Amino acid sequence: MIQVAVIGLGNISGNHLNGLLAFQERCRIVALCDIYPEKAQAAKERFGLTEARIFADHKEMLDYGLEIDLVHVCTPPSSHGEIAINCMNAGKNVLVEKPMAPSLKECDEMIEAERRNGVVMACIAQNRFRNIIWKLKKLADSGLAGKIRCAHIDSLWWRGHCYYDLWWRGTWKKEGGGPTLNHAVHQIDMLNWIQGSLPSEVSSMLANVMHDNSEVEDLSFAALRYEDGSVAEVTSSVVHHGGEQGIMLQCEYAKIAAPWSCAAEITQENGFPLPEKNTELMEKLEQAYGEIKDLEYEGHTGEIDDVLSALEHGNRPLITGLDGRKTVELITAIYKAGFEKRTVSLPITTDDEYYTADGIGRHAIHFYEKAASVENFAAADISVGNYGEKKK
Predict the structure, then answer these.
(1) End-to-end Cα separation, the chain, in angstroms
(2) Who contacts 196 (Cβ-Cβ below 8 Å, separation ≥6)?
(3) Confidence of residue 390 (pLDDT cuts 50, 70, 90)
């Protein structure tokens, strides 16, 4: 039985708690920790966690002597590194919410703590465990559509003006960035996973068009170029009504996309496409997509199942610290390109100013200054993505 603690009982923690409770024969929640202990107590009562102890400080929790095998870190991004490293130094395995950390330096320190302590660190990228994304990856790897030549990534969300009233949101120091870091992190992870490599060059434009209570961007556009000559574009937004996310892969022989669709053209002698399209290839793609087995569990529950399995069998989880770091590196490059208004190259090395959170902060564009804030929001439902699926 894996003994689990959850640190940070904000909105996203519900997804973790529900996921853990799906595997009660494999794990038990023994501790809940939040700097606002009343939030931990409310979660204890809401989820019926009668055996869970409440803590207001994660160091106190680690020193208490409870048997804890796995810690879920669900706090604001600026604290991920410190908390995860303290937990790993205490011999605990960790699952860190997205983004892994606001800077590459922190990511590297976390990866080193994992290695040094002989524990397992996994990073949340739960959308890899959506059936439509899982199947798109499998189909892209099959080569049936040919090599990816152009990818279009839409991380389109909508958040009201008051979203950035929360004390830590909308600040470079605490949140680490806007939707490029905290929302598109999902789609950028998917792009890295499907492409299999980071781009060599990045250009971007950053803007804040709707949230004058936030220092950070609420919209960005990025253009990426890879070593093999292929390209990609990424839109990161919290200003798009409808809030739909998607990935379109334009490959050599066909387009494949999530939400699932495919198309394949046949050329005429003059270069224009035939009206009837390449129906033979499209039928093969549809058949191949339909034959890929559905995941048993999706979203956070799917990733938690994967992490528990890794701990039970001594394997590596699907999404490791190295994966989390790659996502942060590409996001950092997008910010660097946007701040400096030029094309930048990857990798970002340890002597680059943007390697550290302080370095990013020195260059960050403050679109507005955050003049006031609220300490907490009332508990409410949150949305975690819409890939064209029907809303329940």
Answers:
(1) 33
(2) none
(3) very low
